[in-house]
Every structure is written in structure tokens, then in C-alpha cells.
Amino acid sequence: MIRNMPYWRAARVAVILVVLVSLFGTTPALAARDRTPPTQPTNLQTPAVTTTSVTLAWNSSTDDSGNVTYRVHMVSPSREMSTSQTSFTWTSLSSGATYSFYVYAVDKAGNRSANSNTLTVSTDTAPTAPTNLHATAVAHTTATLAWNPSTDNSGSVTYRIQMSSIYNNSMAMETSQTSLTWTSLSPNTTYSFYVYAFDQSGNRSANSNTLTVTTPADTTPPTSPELSGSVLGPSQVSLTWTAATDENQWWSLPYQVFVNGSPATHVNWDGERTVHLRHLTPATTYVFTVQAYDTSNNRSTSNPVTLTTEASSDTVPPAAPTNLHLVSDNGGGEFYVGWTQSTDDVDPQHLIEYEIYINGVMSALPVSAGVDQDFVYAQPECVNTVVVKAVDRTGNTSAPSNELTHFPWGWCP
Ligand SMILES: [Ca+2]
Ligand SMILES: [Ca+2]
Ligand SMILES: [Ca+2]
Ligand SMILES: [Ca+2]
């Protein structure tokens, strides 16, 4: 064609062809046009549905020109989205609504494949709220609750019951039933409950009504402890008792010891059931009892135990301990102190007891006999001033040792 043109005209056509090639990459007149559409996308399915979204997936198309674009078509309302992937998540849908979709592929030349299968999908719905939350039984430490069930499109739901009280900001229990017994409550206490449902996809219902329950007061005392005791010399007795139980308390009960009807100064730990009472008067008859009490302070009293301390003519206290010094500081407020043991006019050294006072407060740890060192727990003050006193079997108490000043917390403000 160009060969038969005059030279000037052939040159002009050549320039036009060069411009066309640079613009379109090929000569439209020379390239074969792509008239082959992509193959049909198949097996359109939905691997995931939520209350507001549907995820679609399909098997890919092939095309002679390489990559294709997929058009995801919603039938009603008619909308279309594009993707180069073989899956697409359609969002912002309505809960519990039904939608139909199909997919087709388009190649670069605009050839369109056949439509895939049409898939009809319903979005998920959240369960309805449980209703009529009410108590079917309330006891000192339990409340049995029941409610009308939720309904959900996907079948079974799980209920979560929320409880709050002055003791607990919020606690929750779950069940697939429509009733639940809440245990470990306290007597004479008000609790609030509500329940909601969630389906297997985690969609949550609204809350039920809020139910307020007050447990009845506990007016029943614990069982009575069985008390026994023995004399340990002129100034001490040992008391021990069986464990009392309470219908509302599964943990160890606290006890209080009484001497001739008055509370003993001895403070025992909750649950402790053996005590040594010290500094009693020689040759004196005492009546001891112990009381167990529950959280509502209902009290039971043991059998009385009558004991007479041994006689003693010892009226002279031991010499004061000397050379009180720091042995070691274990950190955390625990430190060891040591001293030179005392002597007594009557008792051998191994029977002399040592009371340790920190800032004037007697150590709560058990008193030891016949030792020259012991450990103590610091008072919260920055300066801890420690003294030790010796006590003989008759209860005669020495003057204090020298003072030991210690800084157990390592600093002073
Ligand atoms: Ca093609
Ligand atoms: Ca559901
Ligand atoms: Ca009770
Ligand atoms: Ca003495």
C-alpha cells in the first residue's frame, strides 16, 4: 500500500502510524480484536454471614487475555460492585433481610461471561431479648432465677446473667437453660440481675428487665464448738476446740475466747482453734468458753471448761535481756533480732519466754521460750524501735532490754 504512494504521502501515513502505535501500543488495523469472553464463574457460595454483611466466594473464570474483573451483582435493589479477587464481602446490609447475588467476569476488551449461579442469602438476626426475669426461690446464700426464652433465626442461644451488688461491681454466669441458681450470695444483701442472649455468631440481644433480690437475714448461729483445755503451769493454760459450722458459711468461722465471761485479750486468727492464754494468776480457778460467730454475728457458745492454775511462790521477774541487736533484715518488713538470754531466780533458761515489742506493740507472732533470737514483722512506721522482755513461768515480766532502732523500709520521708 505504502509502496505505491507518492513519497510525501507515504511519509505522512508513516508518521500517523507511529503516533497511533505510541498511543495504543499496537496498530488497531493490524491487531486481532479480542472477541472471546471469559468462562463463567461457578459455585457462588456464602462462607460467612453476619447481621449486616454477606461474604461471597466463587470459582475463578479464565480468559485468553489474562486477568479478568468480576462484577458482583445484587439483584434487588440492583447494585453492582467490582473486584479482581474471587471473594467479596458485601457490608451495610439490613439484619434479617434476604438478598440474591450473581457474579460475572469481564475481560479487558469488555467481553462479558455468562452469569454464575444466583445465590439467595439472608443476613443473620440477633436474638430477641429474654423477658420476665424473676426469682423462683431466694435463700440466705442462693437465688434461683428464671426467664422467658429468646428466639433466634439460627437456633439455640446462650444466656448470660449479670449480677451486681455492693460487694461485686459485676459478675456473670452463662447457661443454655432458661433458669439458673446463683450461689455464694451473702445473707441480708441486695443483688441486681439482668440477662441477655447471644447466638452462635455472637450477636447479642437487648437486656431483659432488671430484677432486684434481697436475701433474707441470717438468724441461725453456728453449731457450738466443743472446748477442752489443760493447765501449762502457774500462769498459762492451753485451750483447743472443735470446728463449728454455719449453714451459710463454707469457709472457716472466726472464734472468740472468754475468761470468766469476759473476752480474752488474746486475739486469735480466723479459724485458729488452739490458743495458749498467758499471764494468768497462779492458784486461781478460771472458767473458759469460746464462741463461734457467723457474718451476721449470730453466736454459739461452747461448753465451759474450768481450770485451776498451778500454785507458785515465785515473785521475782527474770533479769532484762541485754545486747538486743539486729541479726539480719530479710526485706519486706521482716527482720531478725537477737539478744543475750535472761536468767531467773527459779526457772531454767529454756523455760523463760521472750515478748518482742515493736513501737510499743507486742509482736503478733507466737511467743518463744529459751531462744536468743527471733524474727518480727515491722510496723508501718519508718522508724521501728524494738525492745524484748523476759517472762518466767509464773508470769513475772522483766524490765525491757536495750532499745534497737531499725529502719526496715530503708528510708524515712
Ligand atoms: Ca477474552
Ligand atoms: Ca442469629
Ligand atoms: Ca448463720
Ligand atoms: Ca522468777
How does this structure look, described?
The protein is mainly beta. The protein folds into 5 domains: 1-31, no CATH class; 42-122, Sandwich (Immunoglobulin-like); 131-214, Immunoglobulins (Immunoglobulin-like, Sandwich), CATH 2.60.40; 227-308, Immunoglobulins (Immunoglobulin-like), CATH 2.60.40; 322-406, Sandwich (Immunoglobulin-like), CATH 2.60.40. 4% of the residues lie in helices and 40% in strands. It has 1 helix and 30 strands. The protein has one helix at 7-24, and strands at residues 42-49, 54-59, 69-74, 79-83, 87-90, 98-106, 119-122, 131-138, 143-148, 158-165, 171-175, 179-182, 190-198, 211-214, 227-231, 237-241, 255-259, 262-263, 274-277, 285-293, 299-301, 305-308, 322-331, 334-340, 353-358, 361-362, 368-369, 373-377, 384-391, 404-406. Strands 17, 18, 20, 21 and 22 form a 5-stranded antiparallel sheet that branches. Strands 25, 26, 27, 29 and 30 form a 5-stranded antiparallel sheet that branches. The longest helix is centred in the first third of the chain and has 18 residues, at 7-24. The protein is elongated. The model is unreliable at 13-30 (pLDDT under 50).
